[in-house]
Write a structure and sequence with these properties.
- The chain is of the alpha/beta class.
- It is built from eight helices and five strands.
- It has helices at residues 4-9, 26-29, 50-62, 77-84, 93-109, 113-133, 136-143, 169-177, and strands at 15-20, 35-40, 67-73, 148-154, 162-164.
- A five-stranded mixed β-sheet has the order 2-1-3-4-5, covered by helices on one side.
- Bound molecules: zinc ion.
- InterPro entries: Carbonic_anhydrase, Carbonic_anhydrase_sf.
- It holds the Pfam family Pro_CA.
- This is Carbonic anhydrase.
Length: 178
């Protein structure tokens, strides 16, 4: 069965796993020696997450990490809140406009509600993996085959559900639609 715990048990090298701040499933994998757990607000790599990002850099550079796995989770209340939020909090501006664009894109593709949630999260994970991979010191490690950045989506209400993210899924979908 592909679930988060068995996925993490199969890890043989030091891995940073990036979770969204409201993902319950973190508790299932705490204690795994190969794992460094990192939280980001909404699972979003953003300039405003400066402190989080500098700790992430420390882990990547000092802990001999060979893999980063982005974990998207269904039913994310942070992303939902950002979509519904009518406040004017500047700190969230970047994250809010990102998630609005993302939701608009997925609605445009007209999936059913259930599939829509999975696609939105896979798309989110794929975009964040790309964003992270583009940060110069990370890109340099990827190019030297010292680091892999990848992503998964889990349903943390149903711990048995885990899908690996196809990083090019949406590029292929858009191609098909055009
Ligand atoms: Zn979340």
């Amino acid at each position: 069965m592909n679930n988060l715990k068995s996925y993490c048990d199969r890890l043989t090298e030091k891995t940073i796993m990036i979770f969204c701040s409201d993902c319950y499933s973190v508790s299932e994998v705490i204690g795994n020696d190969n794992l460094i757990i990192h939280n980001l607000f909404g699972g979003i790599v953003a300039g405003k997450n400066e402190q989080d990002m500098s700790y992430l850099r420390h882990c990547i550079e000092k802990e001999f990490v060979s893999q980063i796995v982005f974990v998207g989770h269904l039913n994310c209340q942070v992303l939902k809140h950002l979509i519904d939020d009518a406040s004017d909090i500047k700190l969230w501006e970047e994250a809010r406009s990102y998630i609005e664009d993302l939701a608009g894109e997925v609605v445009g593709l007209n999936f059913g509600l259930h599939d829509g949630g999975w696609y939105l999260m896979h798309r989110h994970v794929a975009l964040q993996v790309k964003k992270l991979s583009g940060i110069p010191y990370i890109r340099e490690k990827i190019e030297r085959d010292k680091l892999i950045v990848t992503g998964i989506v889990i349903d943390d209400r149903e711990p048995n559900l885990l899908e690996e993210t196809d990083l090019d899924l949406f590029e292929n979908l858009n191609f098909k639609l055009n």
